[in-house]
Fold this sequence. Notes:
Blueprint: H1 2-19, H2 28-52, H3 55-58, E1 75-78, E2 84-87, E3 91-95, H4 97-100, E4 106-111, E5 117-133, E6 139-144, E7 147-148, E8 159-161, E9 168-189, E10 202-204, E11 206-209, H5 218-249, H6 253-273, H7 277-304, H8 311-340, H9 343-349, H10 351-362, H11 366-385
Antiparallel strand pairs: 1-11, 2-5, 3-4, 4-10, 5-9, 5-11, 6-7, 6-8, 6-9
Helix pairs in contact: 1-2, 1-7, 2-5, 2-7, 5-7, 6-7, 6-9, 6-10, 8-9
Amino acid sequence: xxxxxxxxxxxxxxxxxxxxxxxxxxxxxxxxxxxxxxxxxxxxxxxxxxxxxxxxxxxxxxxxxxxxxxxxxxxxxxxxxxxxxxxxxxxxxxxxxxxxxxxxxxxxxxxxxxxxxxxxxxxxxxxxxxxxxxxxxxxxxxxxxxxxxxxxxxxxxxxxxxxxxxxxxxxxxxxxxxxxxxxxxxxxxxxxxxxxxxxxxxxxxxxxxxxxxxxxxxxxxxxxxxxxxxxxxxxxxxxxxxxxxxxxxxxxxxxxxxxxxxxxxxxxxxxxxxxxxxxxxxxxxxxxxxxxxxxxxxxxxxxxxxxxxxxxxxxxxxxxxxxxxxxxxxxxxxxxxxxxxxxxxxxxxxxxxxxxxxxxxxxxxxxxxxxxxxxxxxxxxxxxxx
Length: 386
């Protein structure tokens, strides 16, 4: 949805951005004021909305499910944690990291006694269990608050079939209560098994109480965005000419692209910190403000410094470098994410492209490039008709 928003919203902004470098355009101060007001209002209102609006509208993380005197709060509880209560005969086993394919081994509790069970009293709504399956896996019943948990489609009591032809570890199953609160999850070995199974083994590796899910109101967010854009437009009409005429006169193609690169750097920094749905949509709108215009102006600037008689060669190089950026950018992103274990530093890492690109662009003499291109065209033209 955000990608669709960027594509559609980017069309009018690219038309506005494309007129900034045109000296004959009398509305340049208005256009520049509108863009600048957007670039100021979007992060300010987005960040303020994330902190001031109710969490059910803004999509900020809801308060965590805290533990109580009788129930465990959100978090992961390994099989040996005291919060998990076992009844019946249970044993422990350590699964080596080499078998799991992870950096650490894992402890599992298991039983083959019919009627044996494990329980977790928790504060939350959604829980996820991790277990294993194998040739001797049995079938388990799932109870929630003393009642069998029912299949959402059929209404039959939910069971877990832990049979598989080979041993498999790290399997998960998720169970959801009807409402947040204190609940009791209980898994019971039914003593039954798949006809292909050789036993009735039941295992538990850990139980995770899932944090509360975010909630947001997309209609409210889009409506707020449209109001912000309307206010920016009205402000541009009122103060655009007196405040931005001098700056607009200096907004040639090169400076307009530099403005877009600065905005992209701000977007990357904001992307590193944002943690709400409303900020995400405001950020997407901010991308739409500069994306189409910066791409169009980049091609325009490149064409000005390219000999018309060699446009195929020059834009062939342009296309090749564009493909390189489509490879190098994701590689840097993936490398950073893999080393830091998070996509946030990876988002921040792409600022280096904007900084380096902006610095290189400041070193470009556009007038000299235009003269060289024109001289090359003139030389080839004379050579053709002499």
